Amino acid sequence: MTTLFPASGPDLSVIVPTVNERDNLHEVVRRLHDCLHGIEWEAIFVDDDSADGTADLVREIARRDRRVRALHRISRRGLASACVEGMLSSSSPYLAVMDADLQHDESLLPAMLAALKEDDLDVVIGSRYVDGGSTGTWDSKRVLASRVTTRLSYWVVKTTIRDPMSGYFMLKREVLHEALPRLSQIGFKILLDILVSVSRPLRIREMAYTFRSRHAGESKVDSKVAWEYLLLLLDKSLGRYVPVRFIPFAVIGGLGVFVHMAVLWAVYRNAGYSFTVGQTAGTLVAMTSNFFINNAFTYRDRRLKGWRLLTGWLSFSIACSVGAVANIGIATYLFLGQTAGWTVSALMGIVIGAVWNYAVTSVYTWGKPKGN
């Protein structure tokens, strides 16, 4: 009887996260073909359900080229988590991450792989800030912003790496698995997340490259990227003590205090209604405003839209009902019992309600979508 031995798997997996990158796909694959001669490789395009049919085109290309694969994610978004899912879907011992917009110099991939193999390194980083590297055509404002965020990263990285914010890197598979238990998967700086999540010192080398202009399509960078980066830094520094989402949740809750107190003053002190009516109105208005702000920022990666926004608000309201009852009940008890004045009574009710609100809504309102 003849024993059949299947062909060996790829030595290198190139993970390419995508959102609306259809116009770049053929060129990315062509350039990978050109630069990876003699290397057993695969390209895994992890698509967050692009509206332009990116995933469909990847599947079409994959029918003609077995080295191309599509990982199509539904109801999940985020560059960091896309990279992790792509790496975990492969069996390759070496994993690279690069953008689909061709701003990263793919010709560096063979040298990065050779360095990992021959020099016993853990991570090789495509760096814009070592000698020979460049940010290309960036204007002065973008260069300054990048320098500032890189400096902030030193707060958690504790290393002399020049470009820990790079989105272009290659690593050994075992490094990923060492990092997995502590990965935050927040925002878009997955390299920074990995570097901080591995407890041992890593053997790292940076290789210079020039950051190129986008080949086609539009940049995905927006004002909320800075917010996600801040959340990542908070999680890597304070996450062991408190859930990272509780920090912005508490800040937004603090802003809600002003909303609450303003409504209470207007209803109770100005309009002349009872304290209980004023406290109830303040609770409802503050709760609703907190829901929409948290939906936009704290839970941006799980943001509710369309009908889910309505059902989410209903879920939020129902889930917080116990906290609201405790808020109103305790505040009213303290006030009517003359244990405290109206201001202190209201604040005590707010504190008790806030702790309950976070614990319950993090599970029932913004719980992870199925499949996450």
How are the SSEs ordered, and which strands pair?
Elements: E1 12-18, H1 25-35, E2 41-47, H2 54-64, E3 68-72, H3 79-88, E4 94-97, H4 109-118, E5 123-127, H5 140-157, E6 169-172, H6 173-179, H7 190-197, E7 204-208, H8 224-238, H9 246-270, H10 275-296, H11 307-319, H12 321-336, H13 342-364
Parallel strand pairs: 1-2, 1-4, 2-3, 5-7
Antiparallel strand pairs: 4-6, 5-6
Helix pairs in contact: 6-7, 9-10, 9-13, 10-12, 12-13
Supply the number of structural domains: 2
| CATH class term of the largest domain | Alpha Beta
CATH topology of the largest domain: Spore Coat Polysaccharide Biosynthesis Protein SpsA, Chain A
The rounded distance between the terminal residues' Cα atoms is 44 Å
Rounded to an integer, what's the Rg over CA atoms? 25 Å
Strand order of the largest sheet: 3-2-1-4-6-5-7
Strand % is: 5-15%
Helical content (DSSP H or I, runs of 4+):
40-55%
SSE succession = EHEHEHEHEHEHHEHHHHHH
Low-confidence region ranges: none
Task: Report the CATH superfamily of the largest domain.
Answer: Spore Coat Polysaccharide Biosynthesis Protein SpsA, Chain A
Count of helical stretches: 13
- According to DSSP, the number of beta strands is 7
Silhouette: elongated
Output mean pLDDT: 82
What structural class results from the helix and strand content?
A: alpha/beta
CATH architecture of the largest domain: Alpha-Beta Complex
The biggest beta sheet, please? 7 strands, mixed
